Amino acid sequence: MLRVAGKLTDDWAKFVPAKADFPTSPTPSRKSSGLVCNPLAENIKSFMVGTADLSPSVNLMWKGKVDFQHPGLKTSCGINGDYSGRYIHWGIREHAMASISNGLAAFNKGTIVPVTSSFFMFYIYAAPGIRMGALQGLQQIHIATHDSIGIGEDGPTHQPIAMASLYRAMPNILYIRPADSEETAGAYIAALAATSTPTIISLSRQNLEQYPQYSSREGVQKGAYVFIEKEEADVALIGVGAEMVFAVKTASLLESEFGLRVRVISFPCQRLFDQQSLEYKRQVLRYRSHTPRVVIEAYAVNGWERYADSGYSMSSFGHSLPGADAYKYFGFDEKVIAPKVSELVQDVKENGINTLRGEFRDLNVRSH
């Protein structure tokens, strides 16, 4: 009856793993996503999960899943199922995947919660369908893996430098980029709470450091939160998703070698943060302080000028290199970032914070 009414059971959150249940060793957030989504899909019959021909990569095959397809269809690869199945093999059809998911979500809203999945770059093909889902106020969860220059040798064709800007700007969409497993859990909780909004959860291919001492699923649901507090800070670093590691390591280096006090802010979702009270936003970003804010993210920096004074970002397409080498090639290394941030802080100390007002500074400008 609850499913017909378009509602989840009151105790659905019990299927989301606790922080203590997540690995503490470096873990790809696409794997973290599977640790969260698979028990939800197994136990919540509203979930209709599918992928654009990337089942082994997106980690969404739960134990005992049944594929949705004609019961008489027998494949050489062993994909067999029937019409009771809740796992859809969409093939390489991202536009169709997102658009048909709109129909599933629109049918008696809440009865079916579609979960799609593909590489983040390929969600550019799905953009018209996702936009229509947002326009119609439909609940969907889009799992976008391989979301950074850290994906490796596939190179710039697969590295989604500008995709986040597109979806952050699109009305009525939650684009959430979690930094570790705990934040990934928070992203799913936010997505299930957003009953009239599509959600894109943006995930890494590569291992990410885990921060159980800092990360918070509750913080994710507020869009941004203080990751590492420091009173009377000289600078605040904003870390996002897979690049949180550079914010944390740069903060440590600035303190140990440059004598600076550094706050670190996690900022997984701009739209959720915008929905918070002015008091909360001031508490996190300290708009009226004399502390400059620097966002570190290997994407186009567009949009961050609303929250930061400066950015360490990407201004070009990516490059075909092993993941760690790609980051170094584009200057994402705490030993490169820290001196540039220190120089910015010194400028503010000498000339006042107003030297940055109306002058967003890109600290990672590269010639093309």
SSE order and pairing:
Blueprint: E1 27-28, H1 29-43, E2 47-51, H2 55-58, E3 67-68, E4 81-82, E5 87-89, H3 94-106, E6 113-119, H4 127-135, E7 140-145, H5 163-169, E8 174-176, H6 181-193, E9 198-202, E10 207-208, H7 217-220, E11 225-228, E12 235-239, H8 244-258, E13 262-266, H9 270-274, H10 278-285, E14 293-296, E15 310-312, H11 323-329, H12 334-351, E16 361-362
Parallel strand pairs: 2-5, 2-6, 3-4, 6-7, 7-9, 8-9, 12-13, 12-14, 14-15, 15-16
Antiparallel strand pairs: 1-10, 11-13
Please describe what this structure looks like.
- This protein has 368 residues and is of the alpha/beta class.
- The chain folds into two domains: 12-208, 3-Layer(aba) Sandwich (Rossmann fold); 217-362, Rossmann fold.
- The protein contains twelve helices and 16 strands.
- Helix 6 links the parallel strand 8 and strand 9 (198-202).
- Helix 1 packs across helix 6, helix 3 (94-106) runs parallel beside helix 4 and helix 8 (244-258) packs across helix 12 (334-351).
- It is globular, with a radius of gyration of 21 Å.
- One of its GO terms (molecular function) is transketolase activity.
- It comes from Botrytis galanthina.
Comma- or semicolon-separated keywords:
Rossmann fold; globular; six-stranded mixed β-sheet; transferase; 368 residues; thiamine pyrophosphate; alpha/beta; 12 helices; six-stranded parallel β-sheet; 2 domains
